[in-house]
Amino acid sequence: MKKELIWHLGYSDNLNEIPTEYFSASVPGAVQLDYAKHYNLPNHNAELNFKEYAWMEDKYWFYKTEYDATNIKENKLYFISEGIDYKFDILINGECRYSYEGMYRKVEVDISDLIGSIIKIDVIIYPVPKSTVGNVTPNTRDEANQTTKPAVSYGWDFHPRLVPLGIWNNTYIFATNLVEIAKPEVTYTLNSDRTNALVELSVNSKENVTWSFYSPNGDLIYKTNSSTDKFAVNNPLLWWCNGYGEPNLYKWELSVGAEKYSGKIGFKTVSLEMNEGTWNVPEFPKTRACPPITLCLNVVNVFVKVSNWFAPEIYYATIDKKRYLEQLTLVKEANLNFVRCWGGAIVNKESFYDICDELGIMVWQEFPLGCNNYHSTPEYLSILKNEALDIINRVSKHACHVIWCGGNELFNSWSGMTDQSLALRTLNSLTLDKTPNIPFIPTSPLMGMAHGSYLFIYFEGQEAIEVMQNSKNTAYTEFGMPAISNTECLEQIASKDKLFPLVQNDLTCAHHAFKAWCQEENWASTQTIAHYFGESESLNQLVERGQYLQGVGYRFIFEEARRQKPYCSMAVNWCLNEPWPCIANNSLICYPNYIKPAYFEVAKACRSVLASARYRKLKYNAGEILDFDLWILNDGVKSVKGDTVKVFVQVGNEQPEHIIDWQFPNLSANTNFEGPTLRYKLPYVYSAENFKIILSSGKYSSEYTLLYNCPISDKPKQKILNI
Question: Is the peptide bond before 501 cis (omega within 30 degrees of 0)?
Fold first, then answer.
């Protein structure tokens, strides 16, 4: 039986100094939020208020509570926490009974010897760890290179420097009559043709055990009173990702004495296979080809359509199931089938993975390493191993989990790690031992894969549209397209008079409009917007124009990655969401849950089957030749019956002009088809600012709005067809 606790919090400058004042604390929570609430600090999301929180990372924080165990009838009593952030001591009646450095280990402290008394519990949180190992620049993410805390908290191009501390996950007293806390395990093995699943049940108790196992539709399949048992499920319903089938989940229930436990499992096989064409190298001998990155789920190659996932709050303790659900539902509704849980962020709470199981969203789980050289000191390796074991045991039981990754951008000049780094060898070893059937890659990207770019116009002056169709990569595991946030998000930051004209200053830099990623460009992309549209007259107009560019860019890249199948097998945009209100960023959803127009463009691009146009650039002049390639993109598990695509071009408000009827043949499952290239001379239409390419084919239809310029106002209209 769980019993909640009432907490109070104080702080001091050193470990041996008792706080002079305590105030009410929320658990789960963060010390910064409790302090801010008590002392009425301004909202950290607005203006430059986050700077008022900076000093808190260097203090010792003291949680205290009492529990009255005088009337406890159970024989055993435990203090349990599912996550304390980060280095901490737990004192019971003044005696230190547990010390740990890390945030993912579940803590269980046996306090049964104190049944019948008033128990005083103190949790002392140490200051934020700041590494001095290696070449560390103070107040940067370098300081995270010896910790499993999220590196992003130390400051990133979409995240201020705000480093949470506190009891961040569920924490309670647990009373039971069991000899020890029950730890049920349910595992399975699928035979080679997936027609039989051997299920193994195990629990560390023999006291009045009852297991029940149910099919996805709720039928009882198996029941036993043994603490350990095995049974077969014939012709099991497999777990499938979004767009490829149903995410079938089997439910188990366990009674051990008076205690009740339950969970779900999904039967699947997963592997990473070589991408088609990656063995075809021109020279010999060659010792290394592009590593496998085609995801094979239940022996079906899946084209992975993904968004990089970030925790939706800076203070991740505040995230609950409802918060996860509202954003993960958007992942599914965008026709995505996967999320990459980025290594710079937290490993999510249990409800995140439960929801992904239910929705059929596959999870690429990175360990908490990101853009640093995690030097292999004995102290760090010990912390990493302890934390990794808890992460592996918790995440791997979920059907949604399909890939382990060591961390983000570790094989490059700014991180300097290699596949010989002991941290990565440790993670590879642990995952192989605990989850041999789940693939592991050391980092993203690897050879043949790509991160970037993150701008509509590259530094060299090329559009992402041009660069992307001339690229050849096995997977695009990060690519961005910036835009200014929705006005509702901007209103959380500052008044409009402080945001327009949008110029570089302390406020706009702090909220990532300028100098967020590099000096040459900015996430607000004001220069790019002016290049295509001229100067904007209002903030609303600037937002609308920037978000249009983001939508065009993201849609083109997703469709182009799909056109490069099967050599390419993944398209992963940066990113889905934001943890605080950015003035501008690459996200599809701005804080807290405002959907940008680009989200809907991505949803169009990621339909299982669609007619697609590969055009060459964004803006065209009147009289210029428009040429574009026609495609049918099919990522589905079903064949597609041949049909007709009617192609039109519409300039401004003119009537659409019918260009061609293209008939495509029957297509087998998971197969694209490349059609003809069309050439069309754009007419002169004064006052038109855009034109559309319209591909009409029922539910496969697509429409693209591109920019149009007609500088000669007195030129008569001309319509010339040239196919």
Answer: yes
559: helix, strand or coil: helix
Strands 401-405 and 362-366: parallel
What does the radius of gyration of the chain's CA atoms come to, in whole angstroms? 28
SS3 assignment, position 332: helix
pLDDT reported for residue 712:
63
Give residue 469's pLDDT.
Answer: 94
C-beta separation of 303 from 336 below 8 A: no
What totals of helices (H) and strands (E) does the chain contain, helices first? 11, 43
SS3 664: strand
Q: Which of 328, 322, 317, 373 is nearest to 103 (CA)?
A: 317
Alpha-carbon 86 to chain mean position: 22
Which residues, other chains included, contact 230 with Cβ-Cβ below 8 Å and sequence gap of 6+? 198, 199, 200, 201
The CATH number of the structural domain formed by 609-721 is 2.60.40.10
Selected from 1.10.10.60, 2.40.30.10, 2.60.40.10, 2.60.120.10, the CATH number assigned to the domain covering 185-270 reads: 2.60.40.10
What type of residue sits at position 88? Answer: F
Q: Above 70 in pLDDT, residue 662?
A: yes
| Bond prior to 575 in cis (omega within 30° of 0) | yes
Q: What span, in angstroms and rounded, lies between the C-alpha atoms of 675 and 497?
A: 50
- To the nearest 10 degrees (0 to 180), the angle between helices 539-563 and 526-533 is 90
CA distances (Å), origin 568, targets 294, 488, 560:
8, 37, 10
Which of these CATH numbers, 3.20.20.80, 3.40.50.1970, 3.20.20.110, 3.30.470.10, describes 302-605? 3.20.20.80
Encoded tokens for 559: 């469709």
d(CA 502, CA 496): 10
Predicted confidence at residue 407, as pLDDT, reads: 98
Query: Nearest CA to 67 among 168, 167, 175, 170?
Result: 175
Q: Please spell the DSSP secondary structure of 95-162, one letter per residue.
A: EEEEEEE-SSSPEEEE-GGGTTSEEEEEEEEPPPP---SSS--TTSGGGGTT--S-GGGG-BTTB-S-
Strands across the sheet containing 270-273: 270-273, 294-297, 300-302
Nearest to 561 by CA among 298, 371, 293, 332: 293
- Alpha-carbon torsion 168, 170, 176, 181, what sign? negative
Residue pair 675/664 in contact (Cβ under 8 Å)? The answer is yes
pLDDT at 722: 39
The token pair at 481 is: 């397209």
How far is it, in rounded angstroms, from Cα 235 to Cα 670? Answer: 24
- The answer to whether 606 touches 336, Cβ cutoff 8 Å, is yes
CATH topology of domain 2-176: Jelly Rolls (2.60.120)
Average pLDDT of the chain to the nearest whole number: 96
- Six token digits for residue 34: 């409790």
Structure confidence by residue, pLDDT tens digits, 39-85: 999 999 999 999 999 999 999 999 999 999 999 999 999 999 999 99
> Which helix (H) or strand (E) is 569 found in, with range?
none
Bridge-based pairing state of the strands 338-341 and 304-309: parallel
What is the C-alpha end-to-end distance of the chain, expressed in Å? 75
Distance CA 275, CA 14 (A): 55
Partners of 121 in the β-ladder: 65, 92
Q: Give 305-344 pLDDT, tens digit per residue.
A: 999 999 999 999 999 999 999 999 999 999 999 999 999 9
